[in-house]
Design a protein that fits this description.
- A hairpin with a 2-residue loop joins strand 11 (193-205) and strand 12.
- The radius of gyration is 28 Å and the shape is globular.
- The termini are far apart.
- It has 16 helices and 44 strands.
- Helix content is 19%, strand content 32%.
- It has a 6-stranded antiparallel sheet, covered by helices on one side. Strands 27-26-25-24-23-30 form a 6-stranded parallel sheet. A 4-stranded antiparallel sheet has the order 1-10-5-8, with no helix packed on it.
Amino acid sequence: MLDVTPLTEGWTLRHDGAALPAAVPGCVHTDLLAAGVIPDPFLGRNETEVAWVGRRDWTYGTELPAPSRHEGHEGHEGHGEREGHERTDLVFDGLDTAAEILLDGRPLGSVRNMHRSYRFDVTGRSGPLSVRFTSAYTAAEAVRERLGERPNAYPEPFQYLRKMACSFGWDWGPTLVTAGIWRPVRLEHWSTARIAGVRPLVTVEDGVGRVELAVDVERTRAGAELAVEARVGGVRAGARIDGTSGTVVLRIPDAELWWPHGYGEQPLYEVELTLTDGRAPLDTWRRRIGFRTVELDRSADVHGTGFTLVVNGVRLFARGVNWIPDDVFPSRVTPGRYRDRLTRAAEAGVDLVRIWGGGIYESEDFYDVCDELGLMVWQDFPFACAAYPEEQPLRGEVEAEARENVVRLVPHASLVLWNGNNENLWGFRDWHWESRLGGDSWGEGYYLGLLPRIVAELDPTRPYTAGSPWSGSWDHHPNDPAHGTHHSWEVWNRRDYADYRLTVPRFVAEFGWQAPPAYATLRRALPGEALAPDSPGVLHHQKAEDGNGKLARGLEPHFALPEGDFDRWHYLTQLNQARAVAAGIEHWRSHWPVCAGTVVWQLNDCWPVTSWAALDGDGRAKPLYHELKRLYADRLLTLGERPEGLVLAAVNQSAAAWDATVTLRRMSVAGDVLAARELTVPAAARAVGVLRVPGELEPAGPKEFLVADAAAGTETLRAVHFPVPDREVAYPRPHFDVSVTPDAVTVTARTLVRDLLLQADRLDPDATADTGRVTLLPGEQVTIGVRGWKTPDAETARTALYCVEPAR
């Protein structure tokens, strides 16, 4: 039987003549940090102090243990004992990125792709093992010199090397160009044959699940008779292996369907496949699968070209978030950290996570959690914001990595879509690439040729789309909102978030608004700094071009800028982020089924930074995270302007009809009810009910607003509409009472209190609140659950409570 020896202990990193202890998996930066050689690059402006690390070559070393005396003796009969194995392989699951591997001073091979695994025959060999990494800059710049300059969105050579692009910095990430053994290393000892790969193609029809297992094997000798036996859900089947491949088919009657989060359960079936030589097992492969069908409806209609996910025959409005690597040093992301981030996404109503193309193919831990939680995964191939050469040495690497990772990820029920790239088709058309390229290759052959062929060959059970955004063909602009996927970045970069309401894209795959991280996150990242929007550390942890200028211009239509008051600036920019995303999602969800999904940029951060994330770099929730719970709930109540006037929309994504009984009150800012009506808005299952607000209820001027309340189960949903921006509203000075218990803060409003927010981390860095922004009418009360606050008292709680105030 195949035997595995982990090879993660005893590694060293050579630095200035010394051998430093090295963690494997890990990277140069984390090893130097652990040894005290470099400061924490996440703190202050230390990022610039460690830039030299990415420019150097580095060597990792360990000792490969001596083989047993029988190893390599062909024909040995023993099975399951290491000394009986004919072959030993050295397996690297991930090397970052360009490296030469030497054993006892002799080359084993060279590598140049972070996204692949590597296997070397070391049978009968031992001695010093070295992995010599060339600087990613050196390797990438050599390819650029050979193939020619090509445009990209950032002044770094990331597209010339198959490496996590955002290592080279992004508009939310630091420039920390890594090197190292970033995934596990092991020795595999085996005889006769081993399982080289298994592709379970899972389909279901009329309640019968079908699992077709395509098996590839590697042999030590050609003559041995081989067979495989597979088991799924109590059903068994077997097949012979002719040469190096074979196929086993199993049919599972009454297969339970796997459903996305919020639509049903997520039953998972274990698949076990054993390779034998007729006498004993040689190798075993185990994974979990789920039975479901996935389609992508891209039909043309009167509105353009659709983009609707259909799972088990049910058409979905995708409630999504974009995912970036959760740490710029991805070897630090543990299974527990994946589970925390993804569980919180599911708790916020998210049902789709897009793995963005400037990062990595994530570890099995990520996809396993998505399988369990019902989080659909949209997987980008790693291409982002650049023209990528299609010549060697890149083309062969692209094909090898795509083939390996498609096969690796096929078992996961959560994976529903392959996507060729992020923004490159758009970039070619709109970012002046075409003229600069002058006919040079730029990646189109990958996205419209190579990658769809690989997916069709290896994973025909899932849809593929060439890019995001992509209209489906060159017949339409790549980012045409009426066709396919759309990225909405004119809003934020140049326009106010109110402009989200001007269009109804078919599927919004990226949109978002920036805000600073939680106060406690800033305090930890910038120790000793007097915080201000333009203080040195705050500006260093703002990577977007003119990011703070855009924050200020985004506030200006709504609020007076709080000059010299950092705490007020911090609250208003975080509030503006939540409001901006709400404006988009409320509008687009109310136009289902024309719009079939929103994927917020972004869920997470890779370090402490001002960004578009809902969970900041320390994992703290911004107000946006709590807002997503409301926006992505099955039932949502919205008020919004349309060409026909002010409308009330009852969005119902649940499986049951909702006859929403809505109480509408036109009120004065002083708290008086000026007019009121109770209306019923019928919304069928997975549909939207829309009703024009009666004229007598429409508020006018700076002293009126409209409140809509409706019951949804045990909750009361609320929508609020002010006819003018906050800076023009005649708000009263907010007045409220505060009381506390060991695990809660209760606020009782004595006036209108708009967008009350408790920033719990100001009470204690470990404290968290379970509620985001809330608007209270006079006499109303809200109780906010608080955990991790060691010494609660009402006066301290009041210092962490913020709300909208009258314009000064």
